[in-house]
């Protein structure tokens, strides 16, 4: 297999049960998934289906009870927490619903931090930060603190932070979930723009309209993939009826 044909992300047999106060929640019940370089995959489904848990497993933020994950062909089974942290810094950008910016760091420092932690020389980190913030319409906000920005602006800072190390994979967990309709449109437009330039994206959303920005939509239900369809009309391997029309209606 040539290097380009190696999936950016592959998962096999993922299972995850949460043990909280109440009954155990079987959030992910056996997921196989392969994401090719340059794909924009949306994972959509109802609240509680297990979407966020799946994304957390894919980004190494939680460990599966069973199953394996490969990043660019490298099996992560033996990764320590520290190794996963390094991978997230270099190979995986993540944006969350509530931005997760460091509140006592400026916009500039929030975006530069992952680059500096990855060993990028300060001058190069600054150049990268400046280019991304300009691209995301945030030049002039470098010295602002996150709390001084609108939700949409904070999410754009989070996007800049996620992309500053040019990770092969971007994971997005309900990135528009706490934004108004203008902020939602903006985030989706930006995700589409980065995808057009080759960024591989896995987006989790309960909103089927947002999912239609992707070129492949996975319907997630009760911890399992119920349907997996490319939006170019390619028939689903998992069901006789494509989920595309339902999602676009
Ligand atoms: N840390 C946790 N401890 C206990 N149960 C959890 C935990 N995280 C998630 N769950 C449970 O696991 C199931 C799946 O949750 P998850 O957040 O993955 O679903 P989701 O599809 O992302 O939902 P939503 O769209 O509402 O965010 C739910 O029953 C949830 O209550």
Q: How would the blueprint of this fold be written?
A:
Layout: E1 9-18, E2 25-35, E3 40-44, H1 51-58, E4 66-71, E5 74-75, H2 81-90, E6 92-95, H3 107-117, H4 122-135, H5 151-163, E7 169-173, H6 181-196, E8 200-205, H7 208-211, E9 216-221, E10 224-230, H8 244-248
Parallel strand pairs: 3-8, 3-9, 6-7, 7-8
Antiparallel strand pairs: 1-2, 1-4, 4-5, 9-10
Helix pairs in contact: 3-4, 3-5, 5-6
The structure holds adenosine-5'-triphosphate.
Adenosine-5'-triphosphate (ATP) binds at residues 18, 20, 25, 27, 45, 47-53, 206.
Family: Belongs to the ABC transporter superfamily.
GO molecular function: ATP binding; ATP hydrolysis activity; transmembrane transporter activity
Keywords: ATP-binding, Nucleotide-binding, Transport
């Amino acid at each position: 297999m040539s290097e380009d044909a190696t999936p950016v992300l592959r998962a096999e047999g993922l299972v995850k049960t949460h043990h909280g106060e109440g009954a155990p929640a079987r959030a992910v019940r056996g997921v196989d998934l392969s994401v090719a370089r340059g794909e924009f995959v949306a994972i959509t489904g109802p609240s509680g289906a297990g979407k966020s848990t799946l994304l957390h497993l894919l980004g190494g933020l939680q460990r599966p009870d069973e199953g394996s994950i490969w990043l660019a062909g490298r099996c992560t089974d033996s990764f320590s927490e520290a190794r996963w942290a390094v991978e997230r810094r270099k190979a995986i950008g993540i944006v969350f619903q509530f931005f997760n910016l460091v509140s006592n760091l400026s916009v500039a420092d929030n975006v530069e931090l992952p680059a500096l932690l990855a060993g990028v020389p300060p001058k190069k980190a600054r150049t990268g930060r400046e280019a991304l913030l300009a691209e995301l319409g945030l030049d002039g906000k470098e010295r602002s603190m996150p709390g001084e920005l609108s939700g949409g602006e904070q999410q754009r800072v989070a996007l800049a932070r996620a992309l500053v190390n040019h990770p092969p994979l971007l994971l997005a967990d309900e990135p528009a979930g706490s934004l108004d309709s203008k902020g939602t449109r903006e985030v989706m437009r930006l995700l589409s723009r980065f995808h057009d330039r080759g960024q591989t994206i896995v987006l989790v959303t309960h909103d089927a309209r947002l999912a239609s920005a992707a070129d492949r939509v996975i319907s997630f239900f009760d911890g399992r993939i119920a349907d997996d369809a490319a939006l170019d009309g390619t028939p689903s391997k998992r069901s006789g009826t494509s989920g595309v029309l339902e999602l676009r209606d």
